[in-house]
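Page 37, continued from 36.
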């Protein structure tokens, strides 16, 4: 009996985890970076999670580990453990890293609220220099400024906008270039997939910054979608107009959430959405990256943020490929 059990267990161990499409892993399907956001704890603690990510993707984005509130929760007290875990993994496994994010209205440490304008400006410069300096030469691209616009295209009245004024964006990019001249520098936002008031404001800002010689290299389009809403059919047109400004474009946080429970029809619609995003990026040579915000429904931000919605990723909770995966990787 013991021998039979041992043989059975051994046979199970030989079964591959979440077999990829017969066409091969996603990273081998394109000449663009194909990535996902990950959490260091899952990367370190879940062998199947790590195995599927390593097989399928060639670019990695830290979900939270590089955000200001995480790396410097108290002034002058740093915690680089999670960020180091991700960067070390990337170097050991030949992955590219997308740094996320340096200047953002959310998840910044509370002690910033006590600073006056002059001191805040100095601290932002120091933060960019410290974090980018630590990983200098190890990060391919950085989301330097994240989510700076409201839906109507006006500037979000963040602590940085209110206390530093309109020039904080240009300053952040200049400080970032000085901190790591080899990194590609991006501005990143959501609900900018199609041509609308928000993406128009982003377009106009990038055009102005480029005209002023500000070192902005790319635009990140987050691409958090839901099948409850129509697909942004002007996505390709939007990518094309940004590319025409002379910057790269990246799909940085793609997911497609579903009203729960999921069924075959909803999963098919989700697959169509993913395929349209994939195709829009591949239609424009300067769309250089397709990254998802998480790759498995086992670990997804969606259910906690959008009650009643979920199943937004390419792999299910057991890390099996979903129709969306096979649609973009037939």
């Amino acid at each position: 009996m013991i021998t039979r059990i041992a043989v059975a267990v051994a046979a199970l161990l030989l079964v591959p985890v979440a077999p990829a499409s017969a066409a091969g892993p996603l990273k081998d399907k394109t000449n663009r970076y194909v990535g996902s956001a990950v959490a260091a704890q899952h990367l370190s603690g879940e062998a199947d999670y790590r195995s599927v990510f390593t097989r399928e993707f060639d670019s990695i984005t830290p979900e939270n580990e590089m955000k200001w509130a995480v790396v410097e929760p108290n002034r002058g007290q740093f915690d680089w453990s999670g960020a180091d875990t991700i960067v070390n993994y990337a170097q050991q496994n030949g992955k590219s890293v997308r740094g996320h994010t340096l200047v953002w209205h959310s998840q910044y440490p509370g002690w910033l609220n006590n600073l006056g304008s002059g001191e805040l400006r100095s601290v932002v410069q120091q933060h960019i220099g410290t974090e980018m300096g630590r990983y200098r030469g190890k990060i391919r691209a950085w989301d330097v400024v994240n989510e700076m616009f409201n839906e109507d295209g006006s500037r979000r009245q963040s602590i940085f906008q209110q206390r530093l004024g309109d020039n904080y964006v240009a300053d952040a990019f200049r400080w970032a270039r000085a901190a790591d001249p080899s990194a590609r520098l991006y501005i990143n936002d959501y609900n900018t997939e199609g041509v609308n008031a928000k993406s128009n404001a982003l377009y106009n800002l990038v055009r102005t910054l480029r005209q002023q010689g500000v070192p902005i290299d790319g635009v990140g389009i987050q691409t958090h979608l839901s099948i409850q809403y129509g697909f942004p059919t002007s996505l390709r047109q939007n990518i094309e107009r940004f590319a025409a400004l002379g910057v790269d474009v990246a799909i940085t946080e793609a997911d497609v959430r579903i009203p729960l429970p999921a069924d075959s029809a909803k999963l098919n619609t989700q697959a169509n959405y993913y395929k349209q995003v994939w195709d829009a990026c591949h239609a424009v040579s300067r769309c250089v990256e397709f990254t998802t915000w998480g790759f498995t429904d086992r670990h997804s931000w969606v259910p906690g943020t959008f009650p009643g919605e979920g199943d937004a990723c390419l792999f299910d909770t057991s890390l099996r490929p979903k129709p969306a995966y096979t649609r973009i990787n037939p």
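The chain has 13 helices and ten strands. Flag for discussion at group meeting. Residues 1-16 have pLDDT under 50 and may be disordered.
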